[in-house]
Write a structure and sequence with these properties.
This protein is of the alpha/beta class. The protein has 21 helices and nine strands. Helix 9 packs parallel to helix 11 and helix 17 packs antiparallel against helix 18.
Length: 550
C-alpha cells in the first residue's frame, strides 16, 4: 500500500489493544477537503488539527497531491477524535486516508469539484454534510467549446443535494474576495458554521489569530462564511445555504441606468447598462450612441412583430448582448490596452501570490501578422498589403510575422503597449473597423427583414451572432459561416422550415471548428457548400517533387 505524501499529527500514532479502548467510544469526525491549487487547503487542514489540539481532541491530517480539471489540487483528509482525552491517555490510531461513504463533512471550493467527489462515491446520503461553493472555475473542455460548453450549475447543485445528507451552497470565492482574504479562511468559517464540530466560536477565532498572517482579513472572511453556512430552516431555494441569499458583504451593486437608455423596456435595460459601458470604453461616446441606435432599430422591429410583447422583448435583449460583444471586437489596440491595464497587473500579482514588496516581471510574447497590421491601415492601403502578402505566399515564401517579446513591467515595454493602445483614435479609419461595421449592418438588415415575417426566425438570426468569437482564423471562419447562412437562406421555404434550417445550421457550426457538421447540414438541405478553406503552405524536400520537379 502506498501511503499519502504528507502526514501531520498532533502526536505519533501508537497501536493500542482492544482492551485499552472502551467499546463505548464513538467514531471520529471525518472531514474531506477539496481545494484547487493556491487556495490554502493545506493551511485549512493545519488550522483544523490545531483547533482540535487546543481543545484536547487528538487529530491528524493527510494530504494527497492530485490533479483537478483546471489546476493542480490536493485533497486533504482530517480525522478528529470524538471526545477529549485526559492527559496520559494513549493516543488512538486514526485513519490515514478517506473511505468512500464514511465522510462526515465534505467541503469544496469549486462546484464541479464537489460534484466530482460525489460521483466518485466519497459522499454518503445517510452521513455526509456537504459544503460547496457555487463559484465555477471552468474546465478546459468547457472553455474550448465553440458554443456554450459550461455545465449547468443548477443541475450540479441538485445532483449534490440528492446524494448528500445535507448540503450548504454559497459563493466561497466571492466571500473571500469581499473580505480581502483567501478561500481557506472562508472555508474554515463555513466548517465552523455548520455546527458539526463541538468547539466554541472563540476557539476557531483564536486559531486564526495565532497564525499571525492577515489576521483581520481572515477573521472577516471567517465571520461571513460562518453566517452563510449556519443551519436555518430550509425554504427550498437551490443554490443558496438553506434557501437564503448568499450575496457577500461588500458585493458590487448594480449601477443606475444612464438616461440614454431610459426609453427602453425594463427587461432590456439591465443588459444595456454593461453593453453600453463596454462599447463606450472600446471607442468613445459616439460609438455608444451608434450602439443604442442599432438597438432601437431592432426594438422597433420586434414591437411590430410582437405588439403584445408576449416574448418579453427577448429578441431586443439578446441582440443587445451580442451587439456589444461584436462592436467591441478584439484588435491590436484592444489587446495592447488590456495588457497594460492596472487591473491586469493586479490580477497577475494576485494569481502568482506575489507579496507587496516582491518584484514582478511580466513578459508578453506577441506575433502579429499582416492581417493584424492591415486592420489598422486605411482600406486601400490594407488591400495593397494583403495582395503583397498573397504574392509572397504564392511564391512559396513563409507568411510575414513579427515575433515580439515585450516586458510589460519595464519602461520600454510598457510605453510600447501604451503607444499601441493610444491608436484608438485611428481605429475608425482602419480596414478592420470598416469590415466589422459592414458585417454588423448586414446582420441587422437580415434580422429586420425576418421580423416582418416571423419573430422566431428573427430571434434565431440574432442568436447566430454566437458564431462570432475568438480571433484570427477562428473569428474569420465564424463570420464566413454567418454570411453563408444569411446569403443562402431560401426565401420560398415555409416559415417553420426556415426556422429549423437556421437553428440547425447555427448549432452545427458550433459543433466543431473544422465545420464538418456544418457542411453536412448544408448538404442535407441542398444549400451551396462553403468555399474551401485555404490550406497552409507545406514546404517539401526537392526529392519529393520527382524527376521533373524544380
Amino acid at each position: 500500500m502506498t501511503l499519502p505524501a504528507t502526514f501531520t499529527s498532533v502526536a505519533p500514532a501508537i497501536s493500542v489493544s482492544a482492551a485499552s479502548v472502551a467499546p463505548s467510544v464513538r467514531r471520529p469526525f471525518t472531514i474531506l477537503i477539496a481545494a484547487l491549487g493556491g487556495e490554502g487547503g493545506g493551511v485549512l487542514a493545519e488550522w483544523l488539527v490545531e483547533l482540535a489540539t487546543r481543545c484536547g481532541y487528538p487529530a491528524q491530517s493527510t494530504s494527497i497531491p492530485g490533479v483537478a480539471q483546471r489546476t493542480g489540487a490536493t485533497t486533504y483528509y482530517v480525522e478528529i477524535h470524538p471526545e477529549p482525552l485526559p492527559a496520559g491517555t494513549p493516543h488512538p490510531v486514526l485513519g490515514l486516508a478517506p473511505t468512500p461513504g464514511r465522510i462526515d463533512l465534505f467541503i469544496a471550493s469549486e462546484l464541479l469539484e464537489a460534484a466530482r467527489h460525489v460521483h466518485s462515491g466519497m459522499i454518503s446520503a445517510e452521513r455526509t454534510l456537504v459544503v460547496a461553493s457555487s463559484s465555477r472555475s471552468l474546465t478546459t473542455t468547457e472553455r474550448i467549446s465553440l458554443g456554450d460548453g459550461r455545465l449547468d450549475s443548477a443541475q450540479l447543485i441538485d445532483f449534490i443535494r440528492r446524494f448528500s445528507r445535507s448540503c450548504v451552497v454559497f459563493d466561497i470565492a466571492a466571500t473571500a474576495r469581499s473580505a480581502g482574504t483567501v478561500p481557506s479562511a472562508a472555508m474554515f468559517g463555513a466548517i465552523g458554521g455548520t455546527g458539526l464540530l463541538p468547539f466554541a466560536r472563540t476557539d476557531w477565532e483564536e486559531v486564526i489569530r495565532a497564525s499571525g498572517k492577515g489576521v483581520e482579513a481572515s477573521l472577516r472572511g471567517f465571520a461571513l462564511a460562518w453566517q452563510a453556512s449556519a443551519p436555518e430552516p430550509a425554504t427550498g431555494t437551490a443554490g443558496t445555504p438553506e434557501g437564503r441569499s448568499a450575496a457577500p458583504a461588500g458585493a458590487v451593486q448594480p449601477t443606475a441606468a444612464p438616461a440614454a437608455i431610459a426609453g427602453f423596456p425594463d427587461a432590456v435595460q439591465d443588459m444595456l447598462v454593461p453593453g453600453l459601458a463596454r462599447v463606450e470604453h472600446f471607442q468613445d461616446k459616439a460609438y455608444g450612441r451608434l450602439y443604442l441606435e442599432r438597438i432601437r432599430r431592432i426594438h422597433a422591429a420586434e414591437c411590430r412583430a410582437d405588439p403584445d410583447a408576449r416574448h418579453g422583448f427577448a429578441l431586443t435583449r439578446e441582440f443587445a448582448r451580442y451587439l456589444a460583444l461584436w462592436m467591441a471586437f478584439d484588435d491590436v489596440v484592444r489587446v495592447a490596452e488590456l495588457k497594460c491595464s492596472a487591473r491586469r497587473f493586479e490580477r497577475v500579482r494576485r494569481e502568482t501570490g506575489a507579496r507587496p514588496d516582491d518584484l514582478l516581471r511580466i513578459v508578453d510574447f506577441l506575433k502579429p501578422g499582416i492581417a493584424e497590421i492591415a486592420g489598422l491601415l486605411p482600406p486601400a492601403l490594407a488591400r495593397w498589403l494583403k495582395r503583397f502578402e498573397a504574392r509572397r505566399r504564392a511564391a512559396g515564401k513563409p507568411a510575414l510575422e513579427f515575433a515580439l517579446k515585450l516586458d510589460a513591467t519595464s519602461l520600454r515595454g510598457f510605453l510600447a503597449l501604451r503607444t499601441l493602445a493610444a491608436l484608438r483614435g485611428l481605429r475608425r479609419r482602419g480596414a478592420r473597423f470598416a469590415h466589422e461595421q459592414a458585417m454588423i449592418e448586414r446582420w441587422i438588415e437580415a434580422i429586420e427583414h425576418a421580423a416582418t415575417q416571423d419573430w422566431a426566425l428573427a430571434n434565431e438570426l440574432t442568436l447566430c451572432a454566437r458564431l462570432i468569437k475568438g480571433y484570427g482564423s477562428t473569428n474569420e471562419r465564424g463570420k464566413e459561416n454567418l454570411l453563408h447562412i444569411l446569403d443562402h437562406l431560401p426565401a420560398d421555404m415555409a416559415a417553420d422550415e426556415r426556422l429549423a434550417l437556421v437553428r440547425g445550421a447555427r448549432e452545427a457550426a458550433l459543433a466543431d471548428e473544422e465545420g464538418r457538421e456544418f457542411d453536412r447540414v448544408l448538404r442535407d438541405r441542398g444549400l451551396p457548400a462553403r468555399p474551401p478553406k485555404a490550406q497552409p503552405l507545406r514546404f517539401v524536400r526537392r526529392s519529393e517533387l520527382g524527376r521533373g520537379g524544380a
